[in-house]
Amino acid sequence: MNELQMGLLALGGVAVLGVFGYNKWQERRHRQVVERVFQQPGEDVLLGKKPEAPKPEAPARESGPVWREPGLAEAGRAVPEEAAPAQRLAPQAGPPEPFLEPVLPGDAPAESGLPADREAATVAAEERENLDLPLPASLLSARVDAIAVLELVEHVPAPQVLASQREALSRLKKPLHWVGFNDSQGAWEMIGPETPTAYRRLRVGLQLADRQGPVSGGDFALFSAAMQHLADELMAVVNMPSGQQALDQAQQLDRFCAGVDMQIGINLISRGTPFAGTKIRALAESAGMALTPDGSYVRCDDEGRPLFSLQNFETTGFAAETLKHLSTHGLVFLLDVPRVPKGLHVYSQMVELAKRFAEALNGVLVDDNRQPLAEPQLLHIRQEYVVKPQAAMEAQGIPAGGALALRLFN
To answer: 274, 275, 278: which is closest to 321 by C-alpha?
Structure first.
């Protein structure tokens, strides 16, 4: 055996020992994570019983309470039967199983004894209450998100958390939402790259659907793998929803959204003489509408939320510098039903304004087939395309114009 062969054998031996040592180190590291997170015995998830504590020789002390974080809501309820067939969910054998967050006893450290004074007892009680604060649906919701639950051993700054799997998660085609529990504020909050706070409790939600369709299996697999890698890097315990359940829920959510995703357009066309841009501008501004960069006038509520818009029926958009010379044979009043709260009231406002424009400009209100819109047709549109869709959304716990609706119909 020559020197080359001996050298190769030696290198092979070193490599085997290195792999063996690395595996032992990884095993020891993960064992330490689990021991630190689950250091306090808690409630038996299956039997609902607490393990018996050993009988103390001294007078017994109260042990630290084991908390159970409230489960998130179910994926949704069936749409009322009176809704139009296109607005109903496909029949199901039963309601989807709610995604329940895990029992994490490690969050409630054992008390070594009774508090030294009343102030200490009050602080301890407040800390336990903070652990039980539910995650607001306006931040994340099991109705519209697949939620990864991460419990860290130590507090980690938000920029470090977000940077960990940034490259992998940037390939997702659906929005991702990061939420952390701010211990000093005692509340859940959205986190971003500039957030200075460090967190030990994280929730990461992958949105299941939007106007481009449901989340794909590939996106969910990428999300799941990234969360596992994130947990490994941050020394955390992660709990993920079932992949098949999440994909089934995404399909169901997408069907529901397709049934209520309606935009109502009321067309105003000229009787021969085109509408002058200067007069359109005067009418729009007197109605409290503002010109936007996308070339339309928008009516907003007192809080600045868009209610409906006015657009040119022709291809040219409105612009401040060209309105003086613009003329058009038609206008369109547009209402995005899922994105507007109190749609019945907003629709009535839009119709009344369209009628005022028609009178001032000597035009006529028509539908997409250029058929005149009389009062019976306007009432039918209100009932079928505003009242019913928004009632169905309310029944699903996704009210029109709310935070969840704005995400789904973005």
So the answer is: 278
Alpha carbons 49 and 43: distance in angstroms, whole number: 6
- The predicted model scores a pTM of 0.68
Distant-in-sequence, close-in-space partners of 336: CB < 8 Å, separation ≥ 6:
263, 306, 308, 409
pLDDT tier at 19, thresholds 50, 70, 90: low
Q: Mapping DSSP to helix (H, G, I), strand (E, B) and coil, where does residue 126 land?
A: helix
The two tokens of residue 89 are: 């969910």
Most distant CA atoms of the chain, gap in Å: 104
Whether 315 contacts 295, CB under 8 Å:
no
Residues 250, 275, single domain; the answer is no
Same domain membership, residue 392 and residue 286: yes
Quote the pLDDT of residue 133: 73
**Which of these, 308, 363, 377, lies nearest to 331 by C-alpha position?**
363
Q: Which domain holds residue 228?
A: 85-89+98-110+124-258
Mean pLDDT to the nearest integer, 35-50: 49
Question: Whole-angstrom Cα distance, residue 205 to residue 348?
Answer: 37
Instruction: Give the residue-averaged pLDDT of 31-48.
Output: 52
- Dump pLDDT digits (tens) for 78-118: 333 333 333 333 333 333 333 333 333 334 343 434 444 54
